[in-house]
Amino acid sequence: MHEELVRQAQRGDAEAFDSLARTVGDRCLAIAVRILRDLDLAEDAVQASLITAWTELRALRDPSRFEPWLHRILTRACFAEARRRKRWYEGPRILPVAGAYGPDDYLTVDDRDLLERAFRRLTVQQRAVLVYHHYLGLSIAQVAERIDIPVGTAKSRLHHASRALRASIEADARTTPPPQERMA
Amino acid sequence: MTTSRDPDHLIRAFLAEGDETLQDQVYDAVRAHIEDTPQRAGSGAWRMPIMNRIVGFGLAAAAVVAAVVIGVQLLGSPGGGLGAEPTPVATPEPTPTPVPSLAEPTSSADALLPEGPLLIWDSPAEDAPSITMTISAPGWIHLPQFSAIEKGEEVDNMPEAAVLPGSLPPGSGFYVSGDPCQWASTKPEAPATTVEEMVAALAAQASRDASEPVDVTMGGYAGKMITLHVPDDADFAACDGGEFVSYTDEDGEPWNWHQGPGQIDDFWFVDVEGSIVEIRAMYRPDTPAELVDEMRALIESSAFDFP
Which residues of B touch A165 (CB under 8 A)? Predict the structure, then answer.
């Protein structure tokens, strides 16, 4: 889709790269903010990954593979941000609910709080697997490619992350009355 | 939260929420940074920043180096549509046959190139020739960032078979280093501007195992071919800039890179009306002899046209 822009950018065209970045930037932010659970960190990760992409762009042999290649860089940038600034352990701000999909009626406020807490307890690597699989809808093999890990590792991480989240959800369900009971 | 609800659905719903818009200041910061940041020369891939070649001669804007398939290979002949018969290969005589105006790159960088004539070097200079070769077997792919074509599997960034063409305006030349490992510190005062000077300088390089140069005729023009090896024990880390470089441009920027110890390069240098045409075949010791022969035949099919 962006192949011509990629080719132009590979030839050193900064204008083309700027256009390319604006085409993929929102999606990168969406991924990063879900992995890092912090908007400032996510913006830093996206900025770092776009700069790295520019620097390394000539190593990309197939322009049609630009986005998976960029996501791999982005994932590494997210992990680096997570290592460098573990701000979410110190009381992160709650992310605004203003996504393209809008708030999901399926989720209650309690659900969001619970999932936010549960999500933050996961490692950043586990979150990345969940984001690529559940948010982008990628297959395990595609997830493995984005994170640069073996397929077996991706499968294992997804299993453990999903199990941890489910455990939190089920534990909460055992201690919290259903909505109709709470309203009564 | 109830147990009747699907946890996976909850996770997906949760992940569907959040910011989607990257702020302009992030794009601005990236733009400001990249304006001052040069791109790396294919790090992780080949050590061949072809753009350096072009910029070195002040022709960057004009030089969109794209492999263009002549005739109907991808786009149809100039006057015909898809499915038309292929246009015959350019004549081997040095006539200034105009290249059909099909200035479109292949659809994908790694797209398999169809058999037939291929404009492999679209010269950015009016007084340096473009180069057309005829691909006679399947499996070749186009690497636009290196203005090269490649076939086979890469091992440690070293292609099994790759062809890199180029041409220089008359009077221009290459600075053949005395030692390709110490290429920066052994850059000569003057360039080699003729085929004979190029081949003689390469044959005399330290730490090389050059073949005896042989006379060739290509596209109706006379030239020479020489085979060079990167020593098996070459320690790139100990070389200038960590690179093994046979020759540079006027500014001392590497014109070609070698990928690693053991690499073999066949170099063809042909004098085309005063312009040096340089065509390089890169391969490994384990490259099958048939593939080397195929690559050499491909190069020897070269025809030259001036833009």
Answer: 7, 11
The CATH number given to whatever domain includes residue A151 is 1.10.10.10
Contacts of B158 (CB under 8 A, 6+ apart): B259, B260, B262, B263, B282, B284
Q: Do the Cβ atoms of A106 and B9 come within 8 Å?
A: yes
Contact assessment for residue B46 and residue B149, using Cβ atoms and an 8 Å cutoff: no
Give the number of domains in chain A: 2
SS3 B34: helix
Q: Note the pLDDT tens digit of each residue in B173-224.
A: 889 999 999 999 999 999 999 999 999 999 999 988 899 999 999 999 999 9
Q: What is the ipTM of this complex?
A: 0.79
Looking up residue A1, the CATH number of its domain turns out to be 1.10.1740.10
How distant is the Cα of A167 from the closest Cα of chain B, in angstroms? 10
DSSP string of A72-128, one letter each residue: HHHHHHHHHHHHH--GGGG-PPPPP---TT---TT--HHHHHHHHHHHHHS-HHHHH
Q: Indicate whether A115 and A57 sit together in one domain.
A: no
Cβ–Cβ of B18/A25 closer than 8 Å?
A: no
A169 contacts B1? CB cut-off 8 A = yes
Q: How far is B17 from chain A (nearest CA, A)?
A: 5
CA distance B31 to chain A (A): 6
> Exposed, middle or buried: residue A87 (CB in 10 Å: 0-12, 13-18, 19+)?
middle
Give percent helix, percent strand, percent coil of chain B, each to the nearest 5: 20, 25, 55
Full-prediction pTM beyond 0.80? no
